[in-house]
Design a protein that fits this description.
This protein has 1504 residues and is of the alpha+beta class. Helix 26 (948-987) packs antiparallel against helix 28 (1014-1041).
Length: 1504
């Protein structure tokens, strides 16, 4: 307790007042409660959101993921998809298995793609994908392109063949020293061969280069292949030793000097036999510059051979960096990012100092520290990368792949730091949300509560998973390549853990009999048991934390209820100001010219029953009664009238009619069949390039491939030979026109006669000539801009990439002369900065069927203009036109996009289809192709009398569906009017002429109408969608009637007509899909009165708050991992190339649909973060859903269904023999013992928590804890008297003062516009005043204590000293008297002993004398003898009786008198008799006295 200087603690006053109040009002008000967590204001969350947005924008912009993915994917796809002939088949990169395959692929793909002359008119020199210039290497001429080769060989030694016999040693006397040396592996001096190689003709030596050179600077046999634009080239065998010669022969591409051991033509290089039996690996590198994106890329192709003689590992990887990274906006955002991070660092240091060491016990502290540290690290890496990139751009380092890799690795470090920093920043948002909202705090504490148990179980499961992976690698490696190594086996077992079983499907169970014995137990334990274990941990943690925070939730519910009851407005000030201005303007408009027409009676609000009840509640009822009355009065607000059977039947008819209408008009199944037929036609014809590359439509990746497909395969698609042969008989029978062109027999293309050739179309006999138009091709060309070495217009001169500079001027000519700014989307309107209209020129042979169409003319595709060519329906004419297009520069490197579109009709199902084939060139040079087929079923209203049998079934369900929709509109209108009347009667509203009041009243009614019943909202939206879609359908049917008129027009007009129909059909299809979903939900409205459905609805309603905040928490966490995956894998993985696709990828990852090996191949470090992501999302967050539903699940058993009463309105009048009223359900006895149901987890946790609290409370009470126990009323523990009454009155006055003071503050708080400002300004003033008063009291108590110490305690010390002195003296006197008493007792003892001895001797002498006299005078004293004898008997008897009486009175163990010292009892009796003369004589003394008397009586006669 805090104490003042020499005084009592300031908390004493508060504690005293608390005790007084507890004595007066008990424990219910001031009992111990869970301390509520102080909620952070939302502006703190908003501030951090700004920081998060800035950090995200900076990191995403600097990473440049989408640009890098576009170039990487384009380069990799162009090389992977290219095939070369191998025998009767074709071979691609993944098919390479031998050294000869490797050499053939390098010659046919790499060399041919870079320096080949095939379709040279569609490409630029020494480029890949038309735009990507292959740069020269060190010392190579600028006009050349370089490929860098690094070969590694294995050293061979004499083998030991004793195990297999010496006969094998004769065939292979030498064997490999090691299994393999992969490309880029560290140099192995003992296993790697380093001897010089001599070519087959003995004149070309290839020497081994040392460390620090070659692929990844690991050395090897190095070569530089310089290729020229004419397809020729030389291979320079590099030699960096002093013996190497400097080749400066420009004809061999070595303009600037290359250190070589030999140089030879490319064709001769493959004949020298360098790739012999010792060959282990080959790495090929080439540097590529893209002027459109201003990127530099490094492509690395590696081939690794193993000891078995096969090339088992072929990899192709493209790594890219952006050369133009300048952005003035990013400079400001980076500064903001740095300032924000520094501020949060200061806050972290402050909290650490104030709360040390408890601050570091919280996991959020470590997340904050990691976020701040990684943010600073990423900024530091970026600021270090910028000067490195500038040096790379300006100093000609682009020629060396190792210099590029240095920059790339630095950018990779930045990517790692920024990705993890972004993840941590998103996780920190959860902390701020948790501080601002207790529901998020509940979920965050749930994770913290169960973290330890989950970590232990993860370790437990991990051990078993590792053992399973070891078994899988041992047993399955011989059956599948996916288990050949332990890491791969672990990955695939991890996939099995989450339900992805693809890895085991390739293993035959008959060949591997232990497969099922492993698979079944593994899946049972991991997929079922382990997941349920996580469920149990999360469920218990969630219920435990919920029980702890329940008082806080209850307090917030009461606070919200109080604010609603008081009508408090918590809206921001600016919202209130805008709302007030709108109200004023509307009131002014409504009052213009409108005189007040309301009377005083109308202005007086109505007094309803609810008002009377509320007044009664405030005056007479307690809190419990108030709540019951409120619940009763509002019972009709939430209760909805049950829907009748007629309404349900009407809705069923509506749903059936709508589904029927959609099925017969949309014809989804028929449209899919048409789509499949077109897809089969387009993709069924392979295309072969002049160099031997074979591909199909969806494999097109380059502009030359697209042009070759147009030349070879497109005619086969349109003029399908199979269709002609199969329809020949149909033409002879008259089913088809002999000029019809059909796909897959029945899908005939529409053709039209040009308007200017109608007269020419008729032959001499009036027959139709073959001049019909059938296919339209629309091309758009990109604007070619001069390449200035930059992407943005504001990039400074010093940051532009010019290649090599000399005296500030570019001397290298490797740059492409032109570049395009951005690709052209054929579906978007043209832009002057992107599209070159001046390039739209036609050669003379093309003007007969091609035209330049400006924007806005419907002759072109989508009306966006371009070069438009209309192809003839006659096959020979079509082929000649296509040949003219290929030979007259219709397809050029400037061709950015073109679209082929045509229409066709299927007469079997009366379906009209519009087909578009799209070709689009990206800025990376990659070609994107796609095709769409939009089909719609025609009505043919022009001949309705002939098609009435097919039209009526399609129109009738639509009419029925619209009639039922009108009935639903009327039903909703009626319900809304009832709600409006209920609002008017319940709120006492009056008829007013004010516009604003009418407006707000309608808004409130409408809001309550859709808020209190979600089915009203769904019904309104569904009706609106139905009406809008019905209008679209009517318009579409009208357009259908114009088909015959459009047929007589040109092909362009007909295709434009088809585009309009397709657009409406697409919109109608999407609206119908949305509407059918809402219609599928609306039946729940009729089941909500059912007790079981109400139970489910109540469960969802009770858990809605937790579920809503948990979904927010889930998406914030997922957003962090989405950012991490997007930054880390987006440059190479297609599913992560865009932010939206990454969201889908991460969501599929949680569902078990993932390939972890793909992520591992891209980035091994960052792929490790996907392990905890999967555990967190799949095992933890998914189970939190279950925990929330389980906690709020309503476990009350519903009453039995009364079927007779439900069926009575329907069958009551039909079947009168049945007693429909006999179905009754009696109410349960409220006093009966409730049946105990199965124990729930919530109850179990609650009981456990209560037991823990009880044990803690008992332990605290037993240990002397200062925790206040339960108190009782003061009158229960003390009797009431005058002083007690005064205390009670004083205590009541104190309690009234406190309650009155805080009641005043509470009333002022309700009226305050800003509660936070009110607390800071007014409440804190009261607290400060209380603190000042308490401090003054504390100082006064201290002064009194000091006075008491100086004055009163001195007097008390003197009194205590005198009393102590008296006690010491008294103790001495008592000791003295005690000693004297003991001495007297000893003397008395001796005297008594002497007395006893003396009495015995006297008695013996008297007896002798008596006998002596008796013998002397027997006869004289006969009578006297008798008397003596009688007296002697009497003496003996008396002595005997006295002895017996003494024995009876003596206690066991008491010493007999005269036989020993006196006991304590004897001394006490003697002392009492001596001090008190009136005390009775002790029994022992009485006996002794009687004995003395007897002796004296016997002795007296002798004395006489």
């Amino acid at each position: 307790m805090t104490t003042g200087p020499g005084g009592a603690g300031k908390d004493d006053v508060i504690t005293r007042r608390r005790i007084y109040l507890q004595r007066l009002i008990g424990d219910d008000l001031l009992s111990s409660r869970t301390a509520p967590v102080q909620r952070a204001p939302w502006r703190v969350v908003a501030r951090f959101l700004i920081y998060l947005i800035i950090a995200t924008a900076v990191i995403l912009t600097r990473s440049g993921v989408q640009d890098l993915y576009e170039i990487n994917h384009g380069l990799e796809a162009s090389l992977r998809s290219t095939s070369i002939p191998r025998g009767s088949s074709y071979m691609r990169l993944q098919d390479v298995r031998t050294r000869s395959d490797m050499q053939a692929w390098i010659r046919g793909v790499l060399v041919e793609r870079v320096a080949g002359n095939d379709l040279a008119e569609f490409r630029r020199n020494l480029t890949l994908l038309s735009f990507n210039r292959v740069t020269p290497g060190k010392g190579t001429c600028t006009e050349s392109a370089s490929l860098f080769l690094t070969m590694r060989r294995v050293r061979t030694v004499s083998g030991n063949m004793e195990a297999l016999g010496n006969r094998f040693g004769k065939l292979y006397p030498n064997i490999w020293q090691t299994a393999s040396i992969p490309a880029g592996a560290g140099m192995n001096d003992t296993a790697e061969a380093k001897d010089s190689l001599n070519g087959a003709n003995g004149s070309y030596w290839w020497k081994h280069s040392p460390y620090k050179e070659g692929f990844l600077r690991e050395g090897g046999y190095l070569a530089s292949m310089a290729l020229s634009s004419d397809g020729e080239g030389y291979v320079h065998l590099l030699d960096y030793s002093p013996e190497g010669t400097l080749n400066t022969n420009a004809s061999q591409g070595a303009c600037f000097g290359i250190p070589v051991s030999s140089s030879l033509p490319v064709a001769e290089f493959w004949k020298q036999g360098y790739f012999d039996a010792s060959f282990s690996s080959l790495a090929i590198e080439l540097m590529i510059y893209n002027p459109n994106l201003q990127t530099m890329s490094r492509i690395a192709v590696t081939f690794i051979a193993n000891f078995a003689g096969l090339i088992t590992d072929t990899q192709l990887r493209s790594e890219s960096i952006r050369l133009d990274i300048y952005s003035s906006t990013m400079r400001y955002l980076e500064a903001c990012y740095l300032i924000f991070t520094f501020c949060y660092l200061l806050a972290f240091v402050h909290d650490s100092y104030k709360k040390f060491p408890d601050h570091f016990k919280e996991p959020w502290s470590w997340i904050n520290f990691a976020s701040i540290a990684l943010s600073f690290t990423s900024l530091g890496l970026w600021y270090s990368y910028e000067p490195m990139l500038t040096d790379y751009i300006s100093n000609g380092n682009f020629r060396d792949p190792n210099e590029f890799r240095k920059c790339f690795l630095w950018l990779e470090y930045y990517k790692w730091a920024s990705a993890v920093a972004t993840l941590m920043i998103y996780l920190r948002l959860l902390q701020f949300l948790a501080k601002s909202n207790p529901r998020v705090m509940l979920l965050a504490r749930t994770l913290t509560q169960g973290a330890k148990s989950m970590l232990v179980y993860v370790f437990y499961v991990g051990v078993i998973l590792a053992g399973s992976a070891a078994f899988a690698q041992t047993y399955f490696a011989s059956f599948s390549s996916e288990f050949v190594s332990l890491p791969l086996a672990f990955f695939h077992c991890y996939n099995l853990f989450f339900g992805n079983t693809e890895s085991l499907k390739s293993i035959d169970a008959s060949a591997a009999p232990l497969k099922n014995l492993f698979y079944v137990p593994f899946m049972v334990f991991f997929y079922f048991v382990s997941v349920q274990m996580f469920n149990a941990i999360i469920n218990y943690s969630y219920n435990l934390v919920s029980e702890d925070m329940e008082p806080q939730f209850e307090q917030e519910r009461l606070e919200r209820k109080r604010k609603q009851a008081n009508g408090m407005d918590n809206r921001p000030q600016w919202v209130k100001w805008v709302w007030d201005k709108i109200q004023e303007s509307m009131n002014q408009d409504g009052e213009k010219g409108n005189a007040p027409a309301t009377t005083s009676a109308q202005q007086k609000p109505l007094v309803t029953d609810k008002d009377v009840a509320l007044n009664l509640m405030e005056e007479y009822l307690d809190e419990e009664g108030k709540q019951k009355l409120e619940t009763y009065m509002g019972r009709n607000d939430a209760k909805k009238n049950p829907d009748s059977a007629f309404k349900f039947f009407r809705f069923v008819m509506f749903a059936v009619a709508y589904i029927w209408f959609l099925s017969v008009n949309l014809s989804v199944g028929d449209n899919f069949q048409i789509n499949s037929a077109v897809q089969s036609s387009i993709e069924s014809f392979p295309t072969v390039m002049p160099g031997g590359d074979a591909f199909v439509f969806d494999e097109i990746a380059t502009l030359p491939q697209a042009a070759q497909w147009m030349k070879d395969s497109f005619p086969l698609v349109i003029f399908n030979t199979t269709a002609e042969e199969t329809t020949r008989s149909a033409v002879e029978l008259g089913i088809y026109d002999k000029s019809a062109v059909c796909l897959k027999t029945w899908n005939c293309l529409f053709s039209a006669v040009p308007l200017d050739k109608v007269n020419q179309a008729r032959g001499p006999g009036g027959e139709q000539a073959h001049v019909k138009e059938m296919v339209r091709i629309t091309q758009r060309r990109a604007f070619q801009k001069d390449n200035e070495g930059r992407k943005g217009d504001k990039t400074p001169e010093r940051l532009r990439f010019y290649g090599e500079l000399q005296d500030g001027e570019p001397v290298s000519k490797i740059l492409a002369e032109t570049r395009i700014i951005a690709p052209i989307d054929p579906n978007e309107a043209p832009s002057a900065s992107l599209e070159n209209s001046s390039a739209l020129s036609l050669a003379e042979p093309l003007k007969s069927f091609c035209r330049v169409i400006p924007e806005g003319d419907s002759t072109s595709y989508a009306g966006h203009g371009g070069l438009v060519c209309i192809m003839n329906a006659d096959r020979p004419t079509f082929l000649s036109q296509l040949e003219l297009l290929m030979t007259n520069d219709f397809f050029t490197p400037e061709s950015s996009a073109w679209v082929i579109d045509f229409a066709m009709q299927n007469s079997n199902r009366q379906i009209l289809s519009y087909v578009t084939i799209t070709f689009k060139v990206l800025t990376s040079g990659e070609m994107k192709v796609d095709f769409t087929v939009d089909s719609m079923k025609l009505f043919n209203f022009n001949k309705w009398y002939e098609n009435i049998s097919s039209i009526v079934p399609r129109i009738f369900p639509g009419i029925l569906y619209m009639l039922l929709t009108c009935m639903f509109i009327q039903s909703v209108r009626t319900d809304f009017r009832k709600e409006k009347l209920r609002h008017k009667m319940g709120q006492g509203a009056t008829d007013t002429k004010k516009t604003w009041e009418r407006f707000t009243s309608h808004i409130k009614v409408a809001w309550n109408f859709v808020r209190l019943d979600v089915f009203n909202f769904l019904e309104i939206v569904s009706i609106c969608v139905s009406l809008f879609s019905a209008g679209l359908f009517v318009w579409w049917t009208y357009e259908d009637t114009q088909l015959d008129n459009v047929k007589d027009k040109s092909l362009a007009d007909f295709l434009s007509y088809c585009v309009g129909l397709v657009t409406q059909a697409r919109l109608y299809n999407r609206l119908s899909a949305v509407n059918i979903v809402m219609i599928g939900v609306r039946p729940l409205k009729f089941a909500r009165e059912n007790a079981r459905f109400a139970k489910m609805n109540q469960t969802l309603w009770d858990s809605a708050v937790d579920l809503r905040w948990f979904v927010i928490m889930l998406f914030v966490t997922m957003a962090g991992f989405v950012m991490l995956a997007f930054i880390s894998f987006g440059q190479h993985v297609t599913d992560c190339s865009t932010f939206m696709s990454t969201i889908v990828f991460c969501f599929r990852f949680v569902l078990g649909d993932f390939d972890f090996t793909e992520l591992w191949a891209v980035d091994r470090l960052m792929s490790a973060f996907m392990f905890p992501y999967l555990i967190l999302m799949y095992c933890v967050f998914t189970n939190i859903f279950f925990a929330i539903i389980d906690r709020h699940f309503v476990s009350i058993d519903p009453p039995p269904t009364q079927w007779f009463l439900k069926l009575k309105p329907i069958f009551g009048r039909v079947c009168r023999c049945i007693n429909w009223d006999q179905d009754h359900v009696m109410e349960e006895d409220p006093n009966a013992v409730q049946k105990v149901g199965p124990p729930s987890r919530r109850d179990h946790v609650r009981k456990t928590q209560a037991e823990i609290r009880r044990i803690k409370r008992n332990a605290e009470n037993a240990g002397g804890s200062t925790t206040q126990s339960k108190t009782r009323m003061l009158s229960d523990v003390a009797e009431s008297d005058e002083k007690m009454e005064e205390v009670m009155i004083w205590g009541a006055d104190e309690a009234k003062k406190i309650i009155s003071e805080f009641a005043t503050l509470s009333s002022r708080k309700r009226n305050a516009s800003n509660e936070e400002e009110f607390v800071k300004r007014d409440v804190m003033d009261v607290v400060k005043r209380e603190l000042k008063d308490a401090s003054d009291q504390m100082l006064e108590s201290g002064r009194q204590m000091r006075y008491a110490s100086r004055v009163h305690e001195k007097v008390a010390l003197k009194d205590q000293d005198a009393l102590a002195r008296y006690i010491c003296k008294l103790e001495k006197l008592i000791n003295k008297h005690t000693t004297d008493l003991r001495m007297v007792e000893r003397e008395v003892k001796h005297l008594k002993g002497d007395h006893d001895k003396m009495g015995t001797e006297t008695h013996a002498d008297a007896h002798r004398d008596h006998h002596h006299h008796h013998h002397q005078g027997r006869g004289m004293l006969s009578s006297g003898d008798k008397d003596d004898e009688g007296s002697g008997q009497d003496d003996a008897s008396s002595e005997k009786s006295g002895s017996s009486s003494r024995n009876e009175d003596r206690q066991p163990g008491e010493v007999q008198p005269g036989a020993g010292p006196q006991g304590p009892a004897d001394r006490a009796e003697s002392e009492s008799s001596e001090h008190d003369p009136t005390a009775p004589m002790p029994i022992r003394d009485q006996v002794q006295e009687s004995q003395l008397k007897n002796h004296l009586a016997a002795f007296m006669p002798h004395l006489h």
